[in-house]
Each structure stands twice: as structure tokens, then as C-alpha cells.
Amino acid sequence: METLYNILIDPFVQMYEAPDFLMQVLWEGLVSGVLYALIALGFVLIFKSSRIFNFAQGIMVVFAALTLVGLHENGVPAWLAVPLTLGVMYVLAVGIERVVLRPLVGQPDIILFMATIGVTLFLIGFGEFVFGGENKVMITEALGIPTGALEFNPFGGFVLIEEKDLTAVVMAVLLVFALITFLNYSSMGRAIRALGDDHQAALSVGISLSTIWVIVWFIAGVIALATGIVWGARAGVSFALEVIAYKALPVLMLGGLESVSGAIVGGLAIGILEKLFEIYWGQPFLGGNTETWFAFILALIVLLFRPQGLFGERIIERV
Amino acid sequence: MLYRTSGQFKTTYESDQALFPVKQDALLLGVILLAAYVVFPLTASEFTFKALLVPVLIYSLAAMGLNILTGYAGQLSLGTAGFMGVGAYACYKLTTIFPEMNVVVALALSGFFSAAVGVAFGLPSLRIKGFYLAIATLASQFFLVWLFEKWAWLYNYNASGAIEVRTMEFFGIVITGPTATPVTQYYFVLAVVTIIAFAMINLTRGRYGRMWKAVRDMDIAAELVGINLMRAKLTAFAVSSYVVGIAGALLVFFWKGAAEPNLFDIPLSFQILFIAIIGGLGSIIGNFLGAILLVALPVILNVLPDTLGLTINSATMEHVNDMIVGALIITFLIVEPHGLARFWALIREKLIIWPYPH
Fold this sequence. Notes:
The structure holds 2 protein chains of 2 kinds. Chain A is mostly helical. Chain A contains 13 helices and 2 strands, in the order H-H-H-H-H-H-E-E-H-H-H-H-H-H-H. Chain A is about 70% helix and about 5% strand. Chain A has a two-stranded antiparallel sheet with strand order 1-2. Chain B has a domain at about 45-265. Chain B is built from 14 helices and 4 strands. Chain B has helices spanning about 15, 25-45, 45-70, 80-95, 105-120, 130-150, 180-205, 205-215, 220-225, 230-255, 265-280, 285-305, 315-335, 340-355; strands spanning about 165, 170, 175, 260. In chain B, the strands form 2 sheets. In chain B, strands 1-4 form a two-stranded antiparallel ribbon. In chain B, strands 2-3 form a two-stranded antiparallel ribbon. The longest helix of chain B has 28 residues, at about 230-255. The relative contact order of chain B is 0.15. Chains A and B meet through helix 6, helix 11 and helix 13 of A and helix 6, helix 9, helix 11 and helix 13 of B.
């Protein structure tokens, strides 16, 4: 009984008794959730338009952030470093399309997936070769991101919200809105969605596959840069950032591989739930660090009931 | 000329379905086995054993296990290293709880533990397919590594959190621990790999292998012709995890000598997957070819600058190594998506009709 009470009731009592702490936990969860959602968006865009499960998305985040910091370290001012980094991401997109994707058109999904793992390895080696393997500090101030903290006192308690986290959330929201507008209202966006619906039909009405692929990979690169900036401001820029790419995978499972809204909802849900679980159950009962697997197990359970994820397209199979 | 199959008539169904219907194949295998059992042990240096021969064998065994699941049964798995860890930790616990137990028995039993875990994590495969399943297997990867870290009972409450292999004997010969000679360890691993490879070749040729292939090619169609999907998928998970678990136990007991939980982290999973894919999905020989390539490549790249008289510091070398491996993987996928095993099949076809073009 005692253990059951401790596991099932007590955490909720704690939440009720310290609402300010709960709010702090929820905020932290929300911020990481926003980042997971951003990475998952990069995955979803590429998967929607090309059926490629792009494993390199996580390393693109690191690579973009490293390029930005590396350029700034070599004396390039911040306002110039950002467009230059975007240029590098564009070159990367063209390169990947030319060298990796084009020769592999029509191969089974798993081969393309392996190719993106190959790209991941290459980018890790290349990034370390050019920028060195050590941890770097994101150029938060040079980019004009505020670094102070706001204090709130709800319920007579104390909640601390860092301004850079707030900036991250605002930036992510703007980015998502821009992306949705682009996908829904521009002709290029419509072409991307058409390609996602049916490759052959899209090709037959004159949509160029390779142009769209370059654009999609470039957009994924832009998202990667945004994610790299905000995550780098929180945790520094190093190849350890790569692990957050793995966090985006359960988000994809939860939200569905081809759903933009699923990626957002799934990302937020996983960010918040894993933080809650870690603080109220993981640390007291399981020795902590449950964040490495909680999201996966959660997504697994959801998938057992909905095999296509919460927002995925219904899977129809024919023999 | 050398590889002429004409004139070898099959007069019975048995001889047509034999393991080696072509004489030259059997001969070739004989040469390879002779090299592995006699020539290498006589000529190889200690470094070659530790850095090349033993790792190649262990990695090919792990890739073989993965190939059963991904190449034959079509279930993409990214959690191989986790199951290897289960095998290693199970073997460690068995040999510490029952110190009298023979190493071979402990090894064989530890496979059953990883098989059980594999089946448990394979259950979602009945509902989930494709990439969703691949991500689901990542759940096992992350959960198991976390468990190895946090469950102190698994590593006997060591302060270091690592498992260390003590000295054990096999009929009076020291085969594990720091005092064991590389040659004995090599022979032991080689024997295990030979036995399992033989079993797997026959298993994949038989009833279960055909069942798995049917499921891989189209599971709904397989179900319609009367294959029990649950049984096919779960046996694939069980057999695959069994082999992978033994590979994990061998990895720790006969090569590394000690292991921390992060040894079984995701890079190992990917390395095994690379070996299976570059070697060729759905083939047994491919695993060995892939393992030779992926193990030898870094070693060669490390030795190469020295022999050329260049001095490159080791950190830079490591990065360049990553780049080259990544680029090679992409090149291989573009040149031959079906892997090295397919390469060998093409060469063999050419040899059979040589010197004529067709």
C-alpha cells in the first residue's frame, strides 16, 4: 500500500502543494518540447516530400550551429555569419541531392535511410575536422538574444523564466507559422505537398523532383540552424547535441511521420511529459536519467493502439 | 575454366538441394576454413588477433543475428547493441552466480536471456511496421543501456559500474581474462562462429527461412497463404536476439575483457547495421565480407600514414576516418545497394561462363 501510495498518489499531492515548482517544471518541459518539435519538423518535411527518413537531421543541427560559431570566431560579424551559414546549408542541400539522393532514386527505403546515416558519419567527421571536437559557446549576445531572466510569483511561489528560452519559444512559433504559410499558400509549398501525395502524378504535371528536394533539404537546414541557435544557447555547441536528434524520433512516432501538426503536438507533449515523469517519478523511484528512454516507451505504447501515430495518415495496405 | 559447373550432374533431389551443389563452392569454403583454422593462427601476430581477426568474427556473428531479423524477416532493427548487452550481462551474471559453470554452457544460456528480451521488444512488430518499428526498436536500445547503468545488481555493485571478466578455464586451458593468449581466444570464438554460421545457413534454407522470407516480401500475402505472422516474426526476433546476445557475450568475454554500459550504446548498433547492409541483406556470407571491410578499414587508415611517412596526429586521423567511412558507405550503396554478397555472386557468374561473355 505504502509503495502504491508513493507511486500513484504522492506525486500529484506534491504537484498540488507546490504549484510554482510544477509551473517551473512545465515551462522547462515546454521549452525542450519546442526544440523536439522543431527537429521533428525537419524530419517530417523531408519524409513527406521524398519518403526519406533523414537520420542526418540531428547532425545538421550541430553542423549549422558549429558553422555559425566557427565563422564568428574567425572574425565574421554575427549579422553576416547567419546568412553565410544559410549559404553553407544551401550548398549542403545541393550537395546531398546531387551526390547522395539522385543516384539512389527508386531504391528501397532502407537503403536511403542507410545513406543518410552515411551522411551523418561524414558530417561528424567533416565538422570535427574543420571546427575541432571541443565544446563551443553559442554566440548568444552577438546575435542579440537577451540573456536575462524573468521572475514571476504565482501562488506566492517563485518561477524563473530565462529570456533566451522565451526567445526560443517565440522564434519557434514564428518559424512554424512561416513554414505553414509557405506550405499552404505558395506555389512552391503546394508543389512540395503534391510531391508528398504522389511522386509520379507530381512529376507528370511538371514538378521538378530535384529542385523540390534541394528546397526541402534547405528548409530542413534552416530549421536546423534555428534549432542549433536556441539549443546551443542553452547547452553549448558540441557533437553531444546529436543526442537530441534521437529525441525527435519518438516525437515522429507519436505524431505520425508525415504530419506537420503531429510533429508540433507530439514534440510539446513529449517535452512536457518526460520532464514531469523525470521529476516526479524518475528521480525518486528509478534513479533518474529516465529522459533517455521515457519518450520512446511512451511512443511505443501509443503506437500499439494507433500504429500510424496520433496524426499520421491511415495505413492502407493492398496485396 | 576454374569455376566450371558443367558436368556436375544431379541425379537426386537431395544432391540438388545439398548445402554445396557445386564442387568449387565446397572447395572454396574448405580453403577459407583451412586459412582460418590453420594458416592464420600460425602466421598472425598478437596485434592482428586483437585488432582484426577476433573483432571480424564477433562483428560478423552480430551482423548475422541482425541479418536474420532485417535481411530475412524484413523487420528493421536499430537496437542490436542493446541485445548484445543483454547477452554480455547475462553471461557475466551466470558466471558469477555459478562460478563452476562451464563457459560454453554459460554462453549458450546467456543467449536465451537476450532471446527472451528480444521477443518482448519484438511484440510491437505485430502491430507496427517499417520505420515506426525501427524507432520502436530504438526504445529497447535506450532503455536497456539505461538499465545496465542503473541496475547495480547487474554489475555486482562494482564501484566502477563496469563488468570485468575474470580468468576462466575451459578443460584446463585459460580462455578468458588477462592471462588468456589471443590464439586460444581466437580458436574459441572461431569455433562458436563456425557452429552458429552452419546452423544459420541451414535454418535460413529450411522451413523457417522460407517463412521469414515470405513475411519480408509481403506480410499480408504471407498471412493469406497460411503463414502465422506472429510465429514468424517472433521466432525471427528470438533467433536473431539469441545470436546477437552470444555475439555480445563474446565481445566482452573474448575481446574487450571489460565493459561499461556505454559500450552497448547506439554507435555499436549502427556499426552492426552497416556491416549487415554493406555485406548484403539476406545473405550469410555477406556478414563476413562486411565485417572484414568495416573492421579492416579503420586499421588500414591508421597504419597508412605511417607507412607513407606522413605524420598526422591521431585526433585528425579519427575525423578523417569518420569521413571516409561515411563516404564509403554512400559509395557502396550507390554502386551496389545489394551489398558485397551480390558482388561475389556477380563475380561467380562471370567465372562460370569465362572466357565467354555470355
